What does this fold into?
Amino acid sequence: MMSQFLIKEDRIMKRFFFISAMAALALTACQKEQSIDENKTDTPVIFSATTESPATKTALSQNGEHYDVLWQDGDQITIVDAASNVGVYHTSSTTAKGSFSFVSGTEATKADYKAWYPASIYNAGTPTLPAKQEYAEGNIKNSPMYAESSTESLSFKNICGIIRLKISTTMNGKKVRSIALSATQPMSGAISNAATLANNSYVAAVSGTAGVTLDCGESGVAIGTEPTAFHFAVPANTYTGLKITVLTTDGDFQTRNLKSDKSIVVDRSSIADVTVSFNGFINNLVQHWPFDGNANNSVSGGVNASVNGATLTTDRFGNENSAYYFDGDGDNMNADGAAGFGTTSFTASLWVWSDFTTTGSYLGNLLRTDDGFSSGGFIMNFHNTGTLGIWEGRTPMYSFATDSNYADGKWHMVTYVRDAEKKVGQLYIDGTFIGSYTITGSINSVPARLRFGTYGSGEYYKGKMDDIRLYNRALTAEEIAALYVL
It folds into this structure.
């Protein structure tokens, strides 16, 4: 089915209620504006806050339905004082008006004060809008705010607007695991105008080209014929070239591109609606190792990998413990039983990072199913010059290698497709076709044996790996391009 986009700019969120330093954006419904006495507190106040002027609390409203921002127990803000003391403060109440107590860093004691919510956005003096956000049912979570005050009473303002993505499907049983948004303009990254946020605009601009991903949790969020709303906090901007990629809990995914002549205008403290129908998800994912803190497989019935020396490290988004580092001196993983494609088509894809070359024949194996001696199997590897190669079989043998160096200290998505019907092997890097080999004779059989970082006892890889996927069919060029933006 063709994608259908309905774009409507709702310049709302202009009604304000009373707040103390803004909550974790678990927003609860309210039918009318509330009046809260800012001078009434049940606990001693160290720092308190309101948002916008007058003394009111920001609300999302649509067709008369208001979602009020409430503080949640454990919410944290970062406060910086005139002496450059940086302290993290938290609240222990779930209320529209809370008090914030010092928990770590250095207490802020000298006016003037600047404050950030959530606390993590401050990022050691380089405020950063995160590339990953968390789903909240019917609302937003951790929408960034900023405050500046000469007293302990902080007045917060939103520094973003909202894209409300309404998704429907005619396919039964689909649950959304995550949604990735990207556009010609950046949606996350370092705030490039942080010093100017004290003025009346309070609008964040970010540097770079990063999009944003909404994490919907392992159990996912069900979608059906009636649209389900997903909210993204993004800088105020006019967005063009919008790409939307939905990943389901069963590993299927699909990408939709906003037409080139369409744009979405997002104002600060406003909502812009986009409605999309997703049908025909990309399927046949049979193995997936996301490396989210371990080497377990995310596919039901998939093979967990055993870790031999490799250590957890940061992934391409900067998340800790979300990728694995291989030291080139024995580190490897074993996922025996995971491949087993025989002479049929398959796709293998993974993300790699390396800045290391050697004087030997190989920088190291990425994925490999043969034992270094058998006639069948496939290999994805780095050569000693930092070039990437794909290879299958020995008698007959087919292979392709790049001319360019990809051991360049940057993350790259490397995808290998063997199309048994068309009798070709194809290499894609960063979602783009690079080259191929032609199968002129018989098709080699791929055994179930699988190693990451070695063939079993040599050619060890030095660098990072992440997000390894195996499909039991040949993905198309369009599907691989969609996989790249996940």
User: Anything to note?
Assistant: The CA atoms of residues 140 and 231 lie 5 Å apart.
